[in-house]
Every structure is written in C-alpha cells, then in structure tokens.
TrEMBL record:
It is a multi-pass membrane protein. It comes from Oceanobacillus luteolus. Keywords: Membrane, Transmembrane, Transmembrane helix. This is Energy-coupling factor transporter transmembrane component T family protein. It is found in: Membrane. The chain crosses the membrane at residues 9-26, 53-74, 107-128, 229-249. It holds the Pfam family CbiQ.
C-alpha cells in the first residue's frame, strides 16, 4: 500500500507538522473536516483493518467526549444572551462550546494521525530511517531496536517462569494481593534473564565490529522519494480545503 512505502522519518515529520498546524486552530470546523480527510487517507491508502483501528481509536473517543463535557460543564455563565447556545435546556456561552468542540476534535485528530503512522510503519524501518535521514546516533538507535526485540522475548520468559513455578507446586494466585506477590517472585529471575540476554547481545555486537560510528554503512538504504512529497501534498490539500470551508462558513 501507498502509506507503507513512504519513508518512515519523512512521514513522521509530516504528521508532526500537521499536528502543529492543528494546534493553532481554535474553531471546530477545520479539525472536523481534516479528521474525516485523515480517515479517508488512512483506509484508502493504508489498507488498515477497520475493526483493529476502532479498537485502538475508541479510548481516544471516550477521552475526547470527557474533555468536551468537562469544558462545557465548567463554562462561565454567559453575560450576553445573544452569544449563547441552548443545549439540553441550558444556555451556554457560544465561544466556550466552540472551543470545547475544537479541543475535543484536536485530540481525535492527533489520535487519528498517530494511528495512521503506527499502523502503516515498520518500527525497524523507522529506526533505520532515523539514522539515515535524521542522523540519530547509532548507539541510541540500536539500543532502542534491541529493547524492542527483547519485549516479546521477556513475555515468553515470563510464561516459562510462571510454568516452572506451577510445576514446583507454587499456589496459584486468586486475589490481587496474591497476584502481586507472584509478580514480585517472578521479578528477580526475569531481571537476571534480561541481564544475561543484554550481555550476550552486547558481546555479539562488539564481536561484529559495532562501535557506534555515525559514518557506518547500511545494508538497507532509505531515501526521500517523489511519493513522500505526494503524501505531503495530499495532506496539505486536505488541510487547505478544510480551512477554506471553515473560512467560508465564518
């Protein structure tokens, strides 16, 4: 898909730029239209599963609704009756309602743009791209990659420790306090295993000549191509159209 083929670093910078643009908007129409545009781009060019997307997007919807309700509920009492909106039989300041909508939609836009990046980007490619395009020091980059690779290994190690305790007849936890005691019991062997894996990884990297030199070569090369600029243009068109419609509506 189109979004998966983009340069990860360029895509991240582009998304951050539009998040900054949205931070300067204090009316609800532009964020609402741009949110719709982001959904269209994500599903049309990203091949993202709708069910998976909604699973991750739902918490942000709940958070945005909470922010909307809080901002409206604690709004100041309107002084001028002509500048109010009647909502559920209550007169509320029009400016406060519009600001609350703008803030809530801004949260949803940040979530939508972030999920667009997360669902269409390979984390390994992203780190390699940051080293090549954004000059991230290799020591930091490969440390992050090693930690990322360790996460599923630690999960498997935790299951092994858990099964080993069961074989030895350790009572299974039923209450929260017993579960907490179990996790404390698992912590030391899990930490020892992680240290051994980290030492072996460090020795393997040193034996293969890794020095953290920034001038190192890369087997997998990343570059900024024409399709990356097309992505920026697509997002800019959506933002510009959203802003112009909002301007026309006053």
């Amino acid at each position: 898909m189109f979004l998966q083929r983009l340069n990860p670093s360029y895509k991240a910078v582009t998304i951050i730029v539009f998040i900054i643009f949205l931070a300067t908007i204090f009316e609800p129409v532009t964020p609402l239209l741009f949110l719709i545009w982001t959904f269209v781009v994500t599903f049309l060019f990203g091949g993202v599963s709708l069910k998976k997307y909604l699973l991750y997007f739902t918490p942000f919807i709940i958070f945005a609704l909470g922010m909307l309700w809080t901002s409206i509920a604690f709004a100041d009492t309107p002084n001028n009756p002509s500048d109010t909106i009647s909502l559920f039989g209550t007169s509320l300041p029009k400016e406060s309602v519009l600001t609350a909508l703008a803030l809530s939609l801004r949260v949803l836009n940040v979530a939508a743009l972030s999920l667009m990046f997360v669902f269409t980007t390979n984390i390994v490619h992203f780190i390699l791209s940051m080293m090549q395009q954004l000059k991230l020091p290799p020591r930091i980059a490969y440390g992050v990659l090693a930690g990322y690779r360790f996460l599923p290994m630690l999960k498997d190690e935790l299951m092994i420790i858990h099964d080993a305790h069961r074989i030895r007849g350790v009572n299974q936890a039923k209450t929260m306090r017993e579960k907490w005691q179990n996790y404390k019991r698992y912590l030391i062997p899990l930490l020892a295993s992680a240290i051994r894996k980290a030492e072996r990884t460090a020795m393997a990297m040193e034996s293969k000549g890794f020095t953290g030199d920034k001038s190192r070569s890369f087997y997998r090369q990343f570059s900024i191509q024409k399709q990356d600029f097309i992505f920026s243009i697509i997002m800019l068109i959506g933002f510009t159209i959203s802003y112009l419609i909002s301007y026309q509506l006053g």
